[in-house]
Specification:
This protein has about 650 residues and is α+β, with helices and mostly antiparallel strands. It contains 17 helices and 26 strands. Strand 11 and strand 12 (about 280-290) form a beta hairpin. The protein starts with 8 loop residues before the first strand and ends with a strand.
Length: about 650
């Protein structure tokens, strides 16, 4: 048997790297691991024509890509979903994602999407040194530029190995840039050397890779540090997903972005300067945050561009002492240190984010988080511009679809891990997007649990936006304030100051409970929401707890309505909270479900787990109203001490 020189290969049967033994002129070799022969075939795949997507398909591709921005996705899942999305949309079988690790000086193939499962498992072993001797791949990363190249023109042995393993003849590479640094690259493998049909792929990939870079960076941070990832997950969800709710309302979107920014680093003043291309005026959005009293106020003004020209000329991120720049006095910013993030959108709009701390400076980890969020904010604003170019009907449908999906992620996805307690909660919106809200917020030390239920005036998108904003504020306040009433008071300050001059003012009722999981004591305050029920297990009796207070957002000072009460929970006790969408649901005869039916249903199913109790109550409610249209959001929460 004639032998040919052997070299490192991977057996496509057992996917183990071995030195093939017994290569013949007929192309046969014997694997020393699996003891089987394999015929090396030159696969001939029919050429795929140029991949032309319509404008609508490109928009759908962009919207599908947005679904990847969920920081709960682990790295493996993110790679799989992103590469499969490209494969489906661009009709390409072989798509890879490489990740760079500059600390280790290497580039590792993180995921390879292909229908050939043996190849998918085998190719995961590939790791490259971050060395220019590798040629065009490393050059593309170093220059941060996309490239298309033929394997036959490359001299490094890696390309020959890769070509034989995957059948690749040419490759398109798009660097994944985060903060202008290459964190990886996306590649599409072609089984031909034709250069005519990669152009469309490059154009489309460059649109989505910028978005993917942020999500990839977040996943890498998650893998590196679990604690850091939890903080990042919070800002990621609050920043991108909430701001997406405002795609059709520019000013509200900016206010939400500033609110989230200020929460990330606890800045006292958060500002966005927005200058439209060719305009002599610039719009300045400001959010003031009293960190001691947790009071938030927003302000918007129009300023002549010449008065702040030196600020608008800043082209890169920097920290600065506000005293050294006279333009800061013009826009009313003072403090110990400010950090600036300039951006320019595709439509030419110039943006400058300014965050200021009164008595401290910005540490490196906060700057890292801000960089990530500003990147997310830019994507949100770019997508907002994209939506403006869609037809009114398409924009509204997409807006509602995205808002509904995002709102579902804002409600608790699972019960809190509090030993000795059982939880249940759900919301059924009346119009796809609801204004009702419930939440379980467990303290970091797991000693306290905040439980809330609320109802925003109105329905649909507008009410959903207020609900999302209140959720963000509440999650921030419970970490620094113990009193439920003080938290409700701060939420009232925000709603009143920001919606008092709106065309349609927004109000919200709420009940907020602070449950000490050690002592069993429950402290609660009401804001015009009504009653909740307390079932006593020892006596099998039901107490109706009347809450007081005033609806939030109606008036500036609600101190005269202050209310704080306490109660104790014993083993087996259960509470039920609900919104008026339950008791005011009507049947075909115009009769309401009412509190009497709710109490009766609650007691009849009290032996079940809390989540099952709510399911049974809702079933009885649906049977009561029959096929009549639901006119209000239906929300219930049940908690039991085991």
């Amino acid at each position: 048997m004639d032998r040919e020189p052997t070299d490192d290969r991977i057996c496509l049967l057992c996917t183990e790297p071995q030195l093939p033994n017994g290569i013949t002129k007929n192309g046969r070799f014997f694997c020393q691991t699996c003891n089987r022969e394999w015929i090396l075939e030159k696969r001939k795949t029919p050429r795929i024509g140029k991949n032309i997507l319509t404008s609508q398909e490109k928009t759908e591709f962009l919207l599908d890509n947005l679904s990847l921005f969920n920081s709960s996705i682990d790295l493996e899942d993110l790679m799989q979903r992103f590469t499969e999305l490209i494969s489906v949309r661009l009709k390409r079988d072989k798509v890879a994602v490489f990740i760079t690790n500059l600390e280790l000086g290497e580039i590792k193939l993180a995921y390879y999407s292909t229908k050939q499962k043996n190849l998918q498992r085998a190719i995961k072993r590939i790791t490259l040194d971050y060395d220019l001797s590798y040629g065009i791949l490393i050059e593309s990363l170093a220059k941060r530029e996309p490239c298309f190249y033929k394997f036959s023109e490359q001299s490094h042995p890696f390309y020959e190995f890769y070509s034989k393993l995957t059948g690749t003849k040419s490759q398109l590479v798009i660097p994944i840039l985060y903060a202008n640094t290459a964190v990886g690259m996306v590649s599409i493998d072609y089984e031909e050397e034709d250069e005519t049909y990669f152009i469309e792929d490059q154009e489309i990939l460059q649109i989505v890779v910028g978005q993917f870079a942020v999500s990839l960076r977040n996943s890498l941070l998650f893998s590196k540090s679990e604690n850091q990832s939890k903080n990042f997950q919070s800002l990621h969800t609050a920043a991108l997903t909430l701001s997406q709710l405002y795609l059709g309302n520019h000013d509200e979107m900016i206010r939400m972005i500033l609110l989230t920014l200020s929460g990330i680093v606890e800045s006292s003043i958060t500002c966005l300067i927005e200058n439209q291309i060719g305009s002599s005026k610039t719009k300045v959005f400001k959010l003031y945050r009293d960190l001691e009293n947790h009071y938030i106020q927003t302000k918007t003004e129009i300023i002549d561009i010449n008065k702040i020209l030196s600020l608008l000329e800043i082209k890169e991120n920097r920290t600065i002492d506000p005293i050294t720049n006279p333009n800061f006095e013009t826009i009313g910013i003072e403090g110990k240190e400010s950090i600036l993030f300039p951006l320019t959108l595709e439509n030419g709009t110039h943006l400058l984010f300014i965050l200021t701390k009164q008595n401290s400076r910005f540490p490196h980890d906060e700057i890292e988080a801000l960089n990530a969020f500003v990147s997310l904010a830019r994507i949100t604003m770019e997508n907002s511009n994209l939506f403006q170019n869609l037809s009114n009907k398409e924009r509204l449908e997409k807006e509602i679809e995205i808002a509904k999906e995002i709102q579902s992620t804002l409600l608790p996805r699972k019960a809190p891990e509090a030993e000795g307690f059982s939880f249940g909660g759900f919301m059924v919106p009346a119009r796809g997007i609801g204004g009702d809200y419930y939440d379980f917020i467990l303290s970091p030390n797991r000693n306290e649990l905040f439980i809330c239920i609320g109802d925003v005036s109105g329905k649909g998108v507008a009410a959903g936006l207020v609900m999302a904003t209140v959720r963000t504020i509440l999650h921030s306040l419970v970490r620094v304030k113990d009193s439920p009433w003080e938290i409700l008071n701060d939420i009232n300050n925000y709603l009143y100051s920001n919606y008092k001059e709106a065309i349609t003012p927004r109000f919200m009722s709420m009940i907020l409970l602070r449950w000490n999981l050690i002592t069993g004591e429950v402290q609660f305050s009401g804001a015009g929401h009504g009653n909740f029920y307390h079932h006593h297990a020892d006596s099998n009796s039901l107490t109706v707890i009347e809450t007081e207070g005033v609806i939030l957002g109606i008036q500036a000072d609600i101190s005269s309505f202050r209310n704080e009460s306490k109660l104790r929970f014993e083993s087996g006790d259960t509470i039920l909270l609900y919104t008026d969408g339950v008791t005011e649901a009507r049947n075909t005869e115009g009769l309401q479900f009412g509190e009497s039916k709710l109490k009766s249903s609650f007691l009849s199913w009290i032996s079940l787990e809390p989540k099952n109790i709510l399911e049974k109550i809702y079933s009885e409610l649906k049977e009561f109203v029959k096929e009549l249209e639901q006119h209000d959001d239906i929300t219930m929460v049940a908690v039991r001490k085991i």
